[in-house]
Fold:
Amino acid sequence: YGTRLLNLKSQSFLLLFFYHFFIRLYAFGMWAAAFVHPKAALWWEGRARLRQRYREKLPRKHKKRLWIHAASLGEFEQGRAVIEDFRRTFPDAEVILSFFSPSGYELRKHYDHAHAVFYLPLDTPANARDFIEIVQPDLTIFIKYEFWYCYLRELKRRRLPVLLISAAFRPEQPFFRPWGGLWRDMLSAFTHFFVQDETSRALLQQIGYAGITVAGDTRIDRVLRLAAAAPANDIAAAFAVEADVLVAGSTWPADEVILLPAFQRLWQQATAPDTPFKRRIKILIAPHEPAPAYVERLLRTPALRSLRYSAATPATAAAADLLVIDNIGMLNTLYRYGHIAYIGGGFGKGIHNTLEPAAYGVPVLFGPRYQKFGEARAFVACGAAFSVEREDDLLHTLERLWPPVAHRKASEAILNYLHTGQGATQSILAYIARNNLFP
Structure:
């Protein structure tokens, strides 16, 4: 037994050593990349003089404080309903929001519902002590996948309540591996887990954790609210007049290799003299990274009359076949004009947000790498979403899904999933109130 205990301690020491080494190696890599990569430059510059920024933006503490941390923009949107309901429930409290990635911070650094927005400093013992000492949170919420050893250890040392929300666990993660002691130790800092599904609860219970609520995904609450309050867009509305639109969101080149040829073939069917299509068909593309050269390439798609959003008017949009969105931030409001949505990322690391189009009852298509996303698996299982791997797959799926009867069936299935899965935000706020975590 003593030998086994010694081996476990040695293993934990080595893992912790490599963890700290990797953090510093990552910092060095970002410093080097900052000379040539704009996003890396933002990441590095955003962390310069952080202590000075904290003291400028955070006056002496007079009110209770919630610290909520999101990795990036997607995780922020996942927690946004919680932040806004928290502000309504506890109007006298202060909310401190932190991000790891520039894609979240740069777009939300002036977010109205946060009293201060910061980059999270690198996860070192000194940074964790300083940050928590300056912020002085009364309650901390981490969103989904955020696990930072030094911050969690410091919060645990100070006996501060910490919630993990919208969490989704999978058996292949380090927490559930024999060598995953360091990761399991991080979990011990959490006061309560709000997980998305029963599988996640079972996995946590398997390694000895309790205090788990299967609440679902807070993104469902967020996207349903967004859909209900989405503003009209004159250009997109004109583009969609008397037409059925395929909205392709967050696409990458690997998606467009099959997407554009398949759509062109469908478009040729729809414009043939004996077409079975009752309405004109169009495509709206919002690339994940709309750099000018990338947008120009999309605009050169053969046969289709193409238009960039920034140069469009309602009149020119009505005449176009392809509308390219050359900005970031409005995609979630454009799905309302879609007949079918194609979500990018499925030929890379994984698909992007499928819940946003689903909130409008729009059936969803994506590439083969979707298994990590519970809602995508559920959509496929209920016949509301379809995975494609090749151009022919995509074309045949579009042909099958475009007609009214098949489209209505998929649309009803996707809306039913969302309406039965909402309520995670209320569950989290009820727990905070019931347990007097914010008296």
